Amino acid sequence: MASMFNTRTISVHSPAFKSSEWGTPFFLFHSIKGTENVNELFEYTVQVRTQDEQGKGIIEQYISKAEAMAGGAPGSNLDLKSTIGASLGVAIELDGKVDGVLSLIGEPIERQAGGILDAARGQGTRYINGIITQAAHIGTLGRHALYEFTIRNWMWLLTQSSDYKVWQKMSIPDIIRAVLSTLPYRVEYRLTQEYKTLDYQVQYGETHWHLIQRLMEEAGI
């Protein structure tokens, strides 16, 4: 019997994830969970597991060959600190459920619907991208070593610093641009109106994120 639903494929990628000495990818996706809220910064926890040349979970593949021969601890040569700040992306293939349904009930219903079901075919891929802010080796699962990474929007970095400052003769977008320019990330501005120049604006011990959030709320951005 044909399945009503397609298999969902999820993959994880990061420049911090290198290949083993055997040439295999260091990590495979294991699980993901997280939260997203309007006007708030997202946070996801991504778990990954090791694999060997044959796709099995032998832990020793992910320490050096010398350490493996000497009975080294799982993941002992993985420098978790070096992954902090690196980008990490999760690609989730969305279910194309219409294809599964049509395989059961046949193509005539698609023609009767005037082809509108084409829009629901192949729902595409959702990408979740962030920077690694926490990393840990959390144990083993059978022959797999398990690692857990917390990823957040890069603007989370603005929550980690604060200042006492008076911004003078600047508009709110100008202040926001000045704050964001301290980080090496590309920002696209889509403002459709002019904003007046302020005599001054005070940042009194606020984090840079709270400053930006407050100013955008005041200006309706």
Question: How does this model look, in words?
Answer:
The protein has 221 residues and is of the alpha+beta class. The chain has 2 domains: 143 residues, Pnp Oxidase, Chain A, CATH 2.30.110; 63 residues, 3-Layer(bab) Sandwich (Phage tail protein beta-alpha-beta fold). Helices cover 18% and strands 32% of the residues. A 6-stranded antiparallel beta sheet has the order 1-4-5-6-3-2, with no helix packed on it. A two-stranded antiparallel sheet has the order 7-8. The longest helix is centred in the C-terminal third of the chain and has 12 residues. The chain starts with 9 loop residues before the first strand and ends with a helix.
SSE topology:
Blueprint: E1 10-13, E2 28-35, E3 43-49, H1 65-69, E4 87-93, H2 97-105, H3 108-112, E5 125-141, E6 144-152, E7 162-170, H4 172-180, E8 198-207, H5 208-219
Antiparallel strand pairs: 1-4, 2-3, 3-6, 4-5, 5-6, 7-8
Q: Brief description of this entry?
A:
Helix content is 18%, strand content 32%.
Task: Give the name of the CATH architecture of the largest domain.
Answer: Roll
User: In sequence order, what are the helices and strands, one letter per element?
Assistant: EEEHEHHEEEHEH
Q: What would you call the structural class?
A: alpha+beta
Pick out the low-confidence regions.
1-7, 57-61, 67-76, 97-122
Number of domains: 2
The CATH topology assignment of the largest domain is Pnp Oxidase, Chain A
CATH uppermost class of the largest domain = Mainly Beta
Biggest sheet strand line-up? 1-4-5-6-3-2
Euclidean distance between termini CA atoms? 52 Å
Helix content: 10-25%
How big is the Rg?
A: 24 Å
Number of helices: 5
Organism: Hydromonas duriensis
Pfam family, one: Phage_GPD
Protein name: Late control gene D protein (GPD)
